[in-house]
Amino acid sequence: MNFTKWYNELGGNMRKLFFVIILLILIVPAYALSNVKIDKKDVKVLDANVLVNGSPIKSDFGPYVTSGRTFVPVRELTEGLGAEVNWDGENMTVEIKFGEKTIVLKINSDVTYVDGKKNIVDKDQIPKLALYNSPRVETKTMIPLRFVSETLGYNVSWDEKTSTALITTGENISSTVLQTATIISDEDLKNENNKKNSNSGVQFQSQSEKKETKNAQNNKKNKIYERAGLKEEEYKIDPKKRKITKGFIQNGEKIKIVLDAGHGGTDSGAISTIDKSVMEKTLTLDMINRLNERFLMLGYDVILTRTEDEYIKLLDRARISNTSDADIFLSIHFNASNSSTSKGIEVLYGSEKNIIIKKSEQVHMAKAILKELIDSTGAVNRGVKNRADLIVLNKTKMVAALCELGFVTNSEDMEKITDSSYLDTMADAIVRGVQEYVMNYRMESDER
């Protein structure tokens, strides 16, 4: 049929009706629906997207919305947030650990436990088992996104136009950081063979670090705190009486900073896929030596966790910091990915909302350092990220940050981080960031 002839033969009213129908098709959002089986019943759910600090959660089985609630596979969400998950098939419960926070959820139950305290969620947030038929037949444990994310200290918002749940760290992250982070898609995790598989490009853990972290989680908390050099009164704290300050109070005449070169000795950290002679442990020590010179010139009291190619256990790094009553802890790392396109700089911190031993807000120094690094280098801004699960951040009582200064698996980053002048530029930027933080957040004791 000739469409033009047919359209011209329509009456005026019919033409208007046809135009309205076409307009509605164009402007009304087309929501994608999927079928999953929940409680042995076929349920039509709205497909959803989830971004954690701008990076999409990776899963073969997509999140969905039902009864106005977003549900997401537990393992994919917790890994995206940097948390640990344990499944108890016998009792049908899932345990989520993030820093000092522990959440226990039970399938088909409205009873949850947060740090041992019983909570009741509304019926629309009850965890479920969902049977997917695509891309393959598989049952996934689905948990309520907002409840879990906010309990762990994250913020959650919803973009109606794109059916996207936006998860960000508890403190505000600028939209520019989110925009630059969204284009980065990588599954990163460095192990002893330099194969990386971790949380959307966040800081990896080597085999040595993973083993230590697991041991710390399996041991009694008090014992771990003591090994980290903390006194009983520093970790046995009543949350109701706890007071968090915006800034920090200087402990001595000089500002005392602990500089930590990541990895070392038998733990090489990331090994470059571009030049296998380039190892993270060497780069971190090089950067620490540059920072040491600069902070000493500024009158800081500097403590180094290592000065040579040796491995220092994570709890020992924390102990060095805590027993010295340092004001600042700063750890240096470099990144790696199984995607050669992943690049850029990020700074990690452990939020005081998740770590009981912290007395001051943690994000401010991380933000100040990242701003100076990005302004000075023009590198891709991967944002500041709450990683309260990392020992060097959750077992140090002072303000702490961990810098990831580029990817040894990306040719652009590698060209820069093997250039001495570029390393000097980054060292200068880090020092300026710390100085900016000290200038704006150092408090007098009577301000507490």
Helix count? 14
Main-sheet strand order equals: 1-2-5-6-13-12
Structural class, by secondary structure, is alpha+beta
CATH topology of the largest domain: Aminopeptidase
Return the domain count: 2
> What is the name of the CATH superfamily of the largest domain?
Zn-dependent exopeptidases
Sheet with the most strands, sense and barrel status: 6 strands, antiparallel, barrel
What is the global morphology?
globular
* β-strand amount: 25-35%
Could you tell me the number of beta strands?
23
Note the gap between the termini.
81 Å
CATH architecture of the largest domain: 3-Layer(aba) Sandwich
What's the level 1 CATH class of the largest domain? Alpha Beta
Give an account of the 3D structure.
With 448 residues, the chain is an alpha+beta fold. It folds into 2 domains: 33-168, Copper amine oxidase-like, N-terminal domain (Copper Amine Oxidase, Chain A, domain 1), CATH 3.30.457; 207-447, Zn-dependent exopeptidases (Aminopeptidase). Helices cover 32% and strands 26% of the residues. Strands 1-2-5-6-13-12 form a 6-stranded antiparallel beta barrel. Strands 18-17-19-22-20-21 form a 6-stranded mixed beta sheet, sandwiched between helices. Strands 7-8-9-10-11 form a 5-stranded antiparallel beta sheet, with helices on one face. Strand 7 and strand 8 (93-98) form a beta hairpin. The longest helix is centred in the last third of the chain and has 22 residues, at 420-441. Mean pLDDT is 80; it is low at 20-33 and 171-204. Residues 189-225 are annotated as: Disordered. Its EC number is 3.5.1.28.
